[in-house]
Amino acid sequence: MESIVTTMVGREREREALSAFVAAAGGRALVLRGDAGVGKSALLDHVVARAAAESHRVIRAAGVEAESELPFAGLHQFLYPLLSHLDRLDEAHRGVFDVVFGRAADTPPSVMTLGIAVLDLLSLAASQQPLLLVLDDGQWLDAASIEVCGFVGRRLTGSSVKLVVGLRSGVPSGFDTAALPELPVTTLSEKTAEQLLDLRHPGLDPRIRRLVLDEAQGNPLALLELPPHVRGGRAGRNAEELFGYTGVPLPLRLQQVYGARIESLGEPVRAELLRGALDGVGSGTAADHTRGTRYRMRDADEAVACGLLDIDPLGGDFVFRHPLVRSTVVQTATPNERRAAHAALAQLHRDDIERRASHLAASTVDPDEQVAAVLEAAADSATRRGGAVTAVAWLTRAAELSETREERSRRLGSAAYVAGHSGRLDHARQLVLSDTGSGTDDSPSSVVASGYVAFFEDGDVRSSQRQVFAAIESMRDGGVQESDEVLTRLVDLLLAINQYAGDEDAWERSHELLDSLGDLVPSHSRVYQDAWGDVVRRGAGVAERVDRAFATPADLEPWDVTRLAVAAYHVDTLSRYRPQLQRTVDREVETGALADAMTMLHLIMLDQIAVGEWDDAEDTGRRCLHLTTTHRHTLFVRHTQAYLGLLAALRGQVDQARELQATVDTWSRPRGIGFLTQITDTIGTTAALAEGDYEAAYLHAIGITPPGTFTPYAHQAPRTLLDLTEAALHTGRTEQAHQHAQAAHAAGLPELSPRLHLITHGALALTTPDPTDAHTHYQQAENHPAATAFPFELARIRLAHGTRQRHTHGPKAARQPLNQALATFELLGAATWAERARAELRATGLPTGTTTTHLTTLTWQERRIADLAAGGLTNKEIGERMHLSPRTVSSHLYRVFPKLGITSRAALRDALAKMPGDQKV
C-alpha cells in the first residue's frame, strides 16, 4: 500500500486535503466524487495509508450494483467487523442490529433509530482506537444503507470516527442529498497525465503514447490500463479500429479492453467470473465480510494473471480488481451464459427468498408457475422490508411467468396495487392497461388498482365507489368461498372511499354488503368499517381492537399500519403508535409504499397537533405537501392543505387559514368529498373562535352537525363538540348548547376515547347551571389521566373554568386555572387564546406580564420529558414515546434540573407542581 502512495503522480491538492482530514481532531466525513477510473480508489488507498500511520483502525467496504436493491446489504460490510462490540450496547440497540442482520423478525428500524444505534456502536469501537470507515463505489450502496451512512456522517463531530466515501460522477445516489462535505476528483492535467504514463509505461512508441493520451483525456485508469493492450502487435491499427468511433465515453472503451482479456480466458474461468459478478462479489481490497452465502470463485488464477482479479488478503478469496471488470464480465457474456449463471446462483441462495427470486427471474424464459410463486413471495418479503418498488418489479415478472391468464391478471393487479401504494400512479395505470388490454374484462384486481389510481390522483370518489361496489358484489355472487386477497383489497378500498365521501347512504349500503360476506371480511377490515364510518355509533371497543392488531407489527404490511393508525386517530389513541408510524415513514419514503407514507405523515401531523407540537406539525405538513405535490396525488395535496389550514386556524392565523379553507373547499365540495368539506367547516369554526366571532363559529359548526345530535358518518361531528357548545353559549343559544352536551354524554362519547371524555365533560361543565354539577364535570375533565395529552382542549376548558370561578367564587379562585390556560396557550403559540386568558387574569387583579416567567424557561420538549420522568418513566421509555434516544432524553433532563432548581429526578414532581400551568404532555 505504501508503494501506491509514494508512486502517485500529481494529486497534491487532494493528498494534502486527505492528510489534513486524517490529522484533524474529532470525527468527520468526506466524499470523493469523480468519474470512473479517475483515481478515487488510489486516493482512498492514500487516506488508508495515512490513517494506518496515525494508528487508526480501518474498515473498508464497497458498493455492489447487484445488491443496490437489498436493504442494509452495504451496511453489513461496515458492521460485521464490529460485531464483537454488540454485547456492550443496551438491549434496544442490540435488538435493532438483530433485525438488520436478519436474526430477528420485527419491524425494520427507522433511519434515526438505526443511525443512533450505529453511532453508539462506532463510538464503542473507537473508544480504544480511532476508526476510519472507507467506502468505495458508494453509488451502488442500497438506499437503506446510504440513508444510515448519511445520518451517521452528519453526526460524527466529537467522536473518534471518520468516514470517507468514493462516488462515481453521473450516477445518481442517495449520497447526492446527504449534505456531506465533498472533495472533487477531476481528471489529470495534460502535463501530469504525461508524467504518469511515462512513469508507469516508459519507452512507448510516440504514436501509441499520443493515442493513449488523447483517448485517456487525463483518466488515470485508462492511462495505466490501455498501453499493455495496445502493445503486442496492435500498434499498427488505427484509432478507429482500436477504440471504435470517437465520442464513445471512456468507461465503455475500458470495458472493451477488459472484454478482450475476458474473452481470452477459458470457458470455465469465464463462467466463474460471471457467477461472481452476478452475485455481487467485491472488487479490489475491500473485503466483503458478508460473503458467507455468496458464490466463491474457484480455479481462477488465470484471471489473476490477466489482471482481472486480485486475492483478498483477509479471506483469500478471488475479488475483482475493479468494478469495471465486473461490469464487463456481465456485458460480454451471452444471454444463455447469463441465464445459466443465474440458475446456479438461484440454487446457491435457495434459503434466501429475495436473492433466490432475483436470480430465478433472470434465469427463466418460459412461463413457470413455481418460479412465479417464488417471485410473488419475494415481493411480499420486500414490501414488509420497505422495498415496494422492488416488489412491483418482481410481481410484474411473476405475471410474465404465470401459466394461466387468471394468475397473470391477479399478479399484474397486485403489481399495480403495490405501485399505487408506492406513489407510482403512472406505472400502476400502465399495469392496469397491460392487464385489461389482453382482451379480458376488467378483473377484480384491475378494479382495485384502477380504483386506487382514480381515487388518489384526482379524488374521484363517486365512480370509484360504484366500480368497487359492483366488483365486490360480483365476487360475492360468483360464489367466493374463502378469504381472498383481492376481495380484501376491494373491501378496504371501498371503506377508504366511503370515509372520504362521508355519505350515509353509501355507508349503509356498504354495511349490508359486508354483512352479507360474513367471515370473508377480515378482522382488520371490520375495524376499519367501525372506526372510519360512524365512530359515535360503532366505535365501542375499537381502541382495544386496534391495540391487539398492533401487537404483532411484523405481520403488518405498510398499508395495514396506515389503516390501523387511521382507526386509532378516530378513537384518539394515535400517540401510542406514533413511533411505529415514524419508523415506517422513514423506511417507505424512498423505495417503499409512498402513498401510505403520505397518509402516515398526515397522521403524525394530527398527533403533533393534538399533543401540542405545533411547530413540528407544520414541518411535517410542509414535508407531506412537497411529497404529494411532487407525485401528483391531488387528493392528498388537498388533504394536507386542509390540515395546514386547521393548524393555522388554531394559531389564530385566520387569513392563511381561510385561504387554505377556500382552496380545499372549492376542490372538494363539487367532488362530494365530505371528509374534506367537514374539515373546511372545522377550519371556519376554529378560525372564527380564535377571532371571537361566535356567530360565524356557530354557523360553521352546525354545517357539520346540528345541536343535540351527531350526524351519522360525519367524522368531525364528535370532534367539534366543544366548538359548537362554546359558540352556542356565546351567542345566547344556551338551550342548544346544553342539549348538545347532554347528547354527547347520552351517546357514550366519554367511553369512546380520552379526548372525547375530556371535551364531553368540558361541554357539560360549560352548560350546566348548577355550580356543584359544573365543578364535578370540570374535575372529571381536568383530572382524567389522559387529559394532558390534549393540551389545547384542556387549556380551553381551564380558561372557561377560571372565568366561571371568577364570577362565582371570586378572583383568587380563578387565578390557578387561568394561569394554567395562559401558560399552555403561550407554549402552543395560540396567540388569540393567550390574549383572552390574559384579559381574564387582568380581571382578577393579577398582572399578566410575569405569570408564566419560570414556566417558559423550559422548552415544550423539555416540559414533556420532565413530566414523563416525574410520572416514573425511564429514559428508554420516554425515548420510545418521543422517538428520541435515551442519551438525548438524559441530556434534556440534565438541562431541566438546574432550570427547576433541583438536583434529582425524585424532586421533579414537586418542582413541576409549583409552576403555573402545571400540565403533562
From TrEMBL:
Nucleotide-binding recorded as keyword: yes
What SUPFAM superfamilies does its record include?
C-terminal effector domain of the bipartite response regulators, P-loop containing nucleoside triphosphate hydrolases
- Answer whether the UniProt record assigns the keyword Nucleotide-binding to this protein: yes
Q: Per its UniProt record, what InterPro entries does this chain match?
A: AAA_16 (IPR041664), P-loop_NTPase (IPR027417), Sig_transdc_resp-reg_C-effctor (IPR016032), Tscrpt_reg_LuxR_C (IPR000792), WH-like_DNA-bd_sf (IPR036388)
Start and end of every HTH luxR-type domain? 851-916
Q: Which UniProt keywords apply?
A: ATP-binding, Nucleotide-binding
Q: What is the official name of this protein in its record? A: LuxR family transcriptional regulator
Question: From which organism does this entry originate?
Answer: Streptomyces pseudovenezuelae
